[in-house]
Design goal:
This protein is globular. It is built from 2 helices and 4 strands. The protein has one domain: Alpha-Beta Plaits. A hairpin with a 5-residue loop joins strand 2 and strand 3. The chain has about 100 residues and is α+β, with helices and mostly antiparallel strands. It has a 4-stranded antiparallel sheet with strand order 2-3-1-4.
């Protein structure tokens, strides 16, 4: 069974050139993980100081394996918090297609 986990990262200030160069590929992987349902949400603080990801996983080890797919993961130390629940709205998603 899969459970939600909040993963919190403190980002370096300023962002290193290595991290900045990885942002485009990191966005692609993030979108892939969101589409696969492994990420429930991905949030960056306005001042770029923190990153929060809600991951749907079977264990904390599974969370580590999932976030290791991110190109920037080698530069960040995750704080993993098991959640009791994570409620979201799907208002931003595309509506279901009608066959009418």
């Amino acid at each position: 069974m899969k459970y939600p986990y909040m993963v919190e990262f403190d980002l370096p200030n300023p962002l290193t050139e290595e991290i900045v160069n990885l942002i485009p590929s990191n966005r692609l992987v993030t979108n892939k993980l969101l589409n696969k349902g492994k990420f429930q949400s991905y949030t960056l603080a306005n001042d770029h100081s923190k990153l929060w990801i809600v991951v749907l996983a079977e264990s904390e080890l599974d969370v580590l394996n999932i976030i290791s797919e991110l190109p920037i993961s080698d530069f960040l130390l995750p704080n993993i918090i098991p959640l009791a629940f994570h409620n979201t709205t799907s208002a931003w998603r595309m509506p279901a297609m009608s066959l009418n």
